[in-house]
Amino acid sequence: MEYRRTAVIKLDTPSDAKPALRETVEQFKHCANRASEWCWHGRRQIPPESGCQPETRSVSGDDDGYHVTSKATAERALYDPLRDETDLTANLVQKGIRRAVEAVKSGVERLKRGENTSKPHFSADSVVYDKRSATFHRDHVSLSTVDGRVECEYILPDDTEKPPTKYVSDDDFEFRMGHLQHRDGDWYLHASMRKVEADETPDPDTKHRTVLGVDLGVNNIAVASTGRFWSADEFNHWRREYEKRRGSLQQCGSRHAHENVQSIGRKEDGRFEQDLHTIANELLEEAIEYGCSHIVFEDLTHIRENIPDATWQHVWAFRRLYEYVEYKAKEYGLSVEQVPPENTSKRCSTCGCTHDDNRNGESFECQKCGYENHADYNASKNIGFRYLRRRQNADDGGAPVGVALNRGTLNVSGEYSPASDGLNGSPRESPRF
Ligand SMILES: [Zn+2]
């Protein structure tokens, strides 16, 4: 049996190392964004009317003939120029290119399914390290930067029963790779760790599954089954301002005004995309902290019908958020799934009773059992449970599965177990706002 865990470790970075780390992050993003640009616009980078021959490249197995989704093709074309443009080591340049190729691949898959998407953009301060570019120790890490190696001590809580100390201090868990993240002025190492118990054969079907359910909505962009809320206030404010400006510009009716409307839209989209990246990162962190293997959303295909109050901007934000979570999750080995959305907001997550009167705006009160909670939180739990029930009916009734809740895990037959990873507490529910 193989266990994978991600330990989120705060780093004690020597102050003279910070400029090198910051520059490494910037140059890594530069690699990823340059590679994304190149792979996404692929084979039509030189317009035919320019008189130049479009660049010809061999089409390998998984390329779609337009976008480049082959790591080898991308590395052949980009490795040398990016080594020249940056001070990164060969390994980090390669990782930056690969990060972009993975994201472009996900984008191409979405295009094939007929979904809207656009070129992946990397704005989060994050660098991928493997065992060649980093040396992981039990109390510190040595990281390759634009200016040689930098050593950072871990800041670990004393309690060895709780993550991240629990995994970092356990010699049975080996470091596999890490993501260096810079957030609110602090540096973190998200270390992917693995423990293998040799006497058991790994069997992916009976792997323990914990699910993070996520509800999307117009008042809260996202609510996780662990009770974490991401408010849509800022987004809704932006949206109303945008509509106002658009309205006043459109009254002018000129072509100039029309172009202005479009450029405002683009600029604001960009700003809000940053916020969606942050929400996606925090959703990932929530899943990691609660030891989840799956993040489950409602099916987005007909989301406009399921959330009648949603405007086109909300639908845009939901899709973007889903895409970001989907490609970031891949790097951590988490799966992202969708379930049918019918009645997730009207169904009681405690007794299963579905009734139109159960939900009243943001409050949920079950007509049958009296369960009361925030309506979006109730919905996020239903989304998690729906995925579990479908999996159980599908093929692996015996697999231990549960939905991650605020203070533990609830399995499909309603048995509660407190969080094993130190998130102990009573089964009391108190969603965080
Ligand atoms: Zn009920």
From TrEMBL:
Source organism of this protein record: Halogeometricum luteum
- Which stretches make up the Cas12f1-like TNB domain? 318-383
Keywords attached to this Swiss-Prot or TrEMBL record, sorted alphabetically, are:
DNA-binding
Under InterPro entries, the record lists: Cas12f1-like_TNB (IPR010095), RNA-guided_DNA_endo/Transpos (IPR051399)
Would you tell me the protein name for this molecule? Transposase
Entry keyword ATP-binding: no
Signal sequence range: none
Q: Where is this region: Disordered?
A: 46-66, 410-433
Against Pfam families, the record matches this protein to: Cas12f1-like_TNB
NCBIfam families recorded for this chain? guided_TnpB, IS200/IS605 family accessory protein TnpB-like domain
